[in-house]
Design a protein that fits this description.
252 residues; mainly alpha; 12 helices
Amino acid sequence: MDWSIQQIARIAGTTSRTLRHYDDIGLLRPSRIARNGYRHYDQEALIQLQRILLLRELGLGLPVIAEVLGKESDAATALSGHLQWLRQEQDRLNRQISSVQRTIDAVKGGGELMAENMFDGFDHARYKDEVEERWGKDAYASSDAWWRGMDAGQKAAWKQRSQQLGSDWIAAAGSGMAADSAEAQDLARRQVEWLRGIPGTPAAAPDGDVKGYVMGLGEMYVADPRFSANYGGESGAAFVRDALRIYAEANL
């Protein structure tokens, strides 16, 4: 069974022009071309398109996506990493929806707003328990105050920087480069600089154990599916861990 280019464009929420462009650059080939010249796509092509769209959601450009797809030939393994990330986001969004709905109900009904329930699922408190358990309540309080003190533009810029860093890690892991390569070590440097900019963490403290903190985070990225999903799954997180360990041993 296959589908015409028009059917796929409608089902996937894209355009025929986009699909033709993917064909022109070798990213997504049609499974056959009919006598009328129309492109048709089979099940394997649909899986490829799903992976392309997922990687686009992560902010990757088409040349990088082509590299990732070329290195990760096992679609099931790659999609499992994406599924972990999507489930994590689904849980967070469901909590946000419930939080906002409670606020609407309270406003309409003239009831009292419960402050402790209003921000469930929002980023700034996402790992509150883990932070307090590992580094103390002061660490969370400092980072939370820093986050709340930023305006919308500053928060958007910080999120963009974080997402770009994660996308670059995923692309690097998918390209097959070595963890000790110059490119991977530059990513590790950027990761450490990013961590140093978050108040309340050992990386930001003048006398903090930056080396232990960075290496410990690397292990946590692999062990905790919520974190490994940010790097394309366990294998991607393992690449990040190894690159951070090499960088920490040499520079921290």
